[in-house]
Amino acid sequence: MLGTAVQAQEKKQLAFVVNGASDFWKAAEAGVAKAQKELPDFEMSVKYPEQAAAAIQQRLMDDLVAAGTDAIMVSAIDPGTSTEALNRIGSQIPLFTTDSDAANTNRVAYIGSSNELAGEQAGEAAVKALPNGAKCMGFVGLLGADNAKERIAGFKKAVEGHNIELIDTRGDDIDFARAKKNVEDTLVSNPEVNCMVGFYSYNPPKIYEALKDAGKLGEITVIAFDGDPITLGAVKDGSFAATIVQQPFEWGYQGMKLMAAYLGGDKSGVPTGGIIIVPTKTIDKANVDEYMASEAAMLK
């Protein structure tokens, strides 16, 4: 029994810290689980902050470091105001980022989407769906997060010159009730809006619910992000024009393997500049069935 306890203690601890409670992260959990099977000498976990707030996420990471965690990968909440806290973590153990980078910190590497390119893909989908132009409202969880800023910037870049305007983006701090209310309020206060963009995974399903409740499903063009089942169903039936999907499974899988190798002294997986891009893809009615089948197979 003593030998087993010592052996367990000797395992390196790797943590994947997300930015808030969302089904989006289930795919990342599956990726971490796959990496865990391949690397049994490490102990891997996915950690959720109690609330989508930078201070709470930082406290969670401090607790992990104090408990002996050897490396952390984090989707940074509001990295612009968290540089000092992230640098503190990164000075104690190797710190990696995913989903939302913190490029101005001492993090080792970022693995995830190019959020600006994903935003451009969303903008291109809007241009295709709205040849006569539109006034769009955006919806996102964390307005201060780099992934939000970059997606919004990419969208604006792609629609420039096409008579499509993103008039505003409403944040909700990953509060699902507030996310839906933001859509409901827009329907009342901005009747000119004929396009909606859901920049985080749970925003499109909340757009769907609000539009359905208001009897406006199909009347307003929706550009979505990620592969929530409600979102994919809406793309399949034509209620949504398209969704831009990421690969969080690969973030979890490749991220854990990268951290494990790094702790073992192999730093060859960290490129110059520290950026590892996992491509995003536009899913519309033409390819949604193929995508859903491939995702189901992956999660098994």
Fold topology:
Elements: H1 2-10, E1 12-17, H2 26-38, E2 42-47, H3 54-66, E3 71-74, H4 83-92, E4 95-98, E5 110-112, H5 115-129, E6 134-140, H6 146-159, E7 164-171, H7 176-189, E8 195-198, H8 203-213, E9 221-225, H9 229-237, E10 242-245, H10 248-263, E11 275-277, E12 281-283, H11 288-299
Parallel strand pairs: 1-2, 1-3, 3-4, 4-5, 5-11, 6-7, 6-8, 8-9, 9-10
Antiparallel strand pairs: 10-12
Characterize the structure shown.
The protein has eleven helices and twelve strands. The protein has two domains: 2-112 and 247-269, Rossmann fold; 115-245, Rossmann fold (3-Layer(aba) Sandwich). The protein starts with a helix and ends with a helix. β1, α2 (26-38) and β2 form a beta-alpha-beta unit. The longest helix is centred in the C-terminal third of the chain and has 16 residues, at 248-263. The mean pLDDT is 94. α3 (54-66) runs parallel beside α4 (83-92), α5 runs parallel beside α6 (146-159) and α7 (176-189) packs across α8 (203-213). The protein is of the alpha/beta class and 300 residues long. The protein is globular, with a radius of gyration of 20 Å. The strands form two sheets. The chain has a six-stranded parallel sheet with strand order 2-1-3-4-5-11, sandwiched between helices. Strands 7-6-8-9-10-12 form a six-stranded mixed sheet, with helices on both faces.
